[in-house]
Amino acid sequence: MLLALLAVFSTAxxxxxxxxxxxxxxxxxxxxxxxxxxxxxxTAGGALLAHGDLLQVARDRExxxxxxxHFADATVFEETVTFTQHGVFTMxxxxxxxxxxxxxxxxxxxxxxxxxxxxxxxxHKDGGEEQYTGKLDLPPDVYNGLAITIAMNLVAGDTxxxxxxxxxxxxxxxxxxxxxxxxxxxMLGQHAETAVHFKLKPKLGTLLKVFATLLGKAPxxxxxxxxxxxxxxxxxxxxxxxSGPVWRLDLTSPxxxx
Length: 258
Known about the structure:
Layout: H1 2-19, E1 35-43, E2 48-58, E3 63-71, E4 76-86, E5 88-99, E6 105-112, E7 116-123, E8 129-135, H2 147-152, E9 160-167, E10 171-188, E11 191-203, H3 206-215, E12 222-227, E13 233-239, E14 247-251
Antiparallel strand pairs: 1-2, 1-14, 2-3, 3-4, 4-5, 5-6, 6-7, 7-8, 9-10, 10-11, 11-12, 12-13, 13-14
């Protein structure tokens, strides 16, 4: 009887794998170009943490985007992603550096398209260092550093689940659901715009979610607001930069000295 049940279970799992839809890269609706944006990072309560830059350079074959923040306490966050946009968005290389007292530990991540990752960590408590290497089988819709870009390219009303690699510090390939969740009125002087509110929900799978919850490391949802009329424009995001507390990311403008 037990063997028969196992056989039925194995057959059902095999049929489920056959029906499973393979992940697909997200089509390009709005091509990315060269830009330099100014950013500010605040706590969830609104206290200013750091000013930053978003630097993007479009070349013939690929686009490189770098987001960097320098904190007053010498904390540094720098995320660089290189991607192509030939019909679909495809991540080519991802590099992350977070160091300083604003984070629990220093972390440096290198993840190329090949999946051959390198992770280096350093503890702030005892100075201990660890290194992790290995290879992941990356699906075509891995979008580390590109979640907002993907949201800007979704058809209105659509929900898309893609993948990201979470480093805890060992890498975990998880799903990321990007779903519209209503809208919000924002003001540009006296002019009103409507921003679509997107929820970015990590999808851990049942077993991994149970362990993450037990360990107190279940990643929170993030939020992004994008004005989608005619040409999409990023307005605000809230969530952990990578690991740590929920922070708020806003656009800003340079100020003139007195």
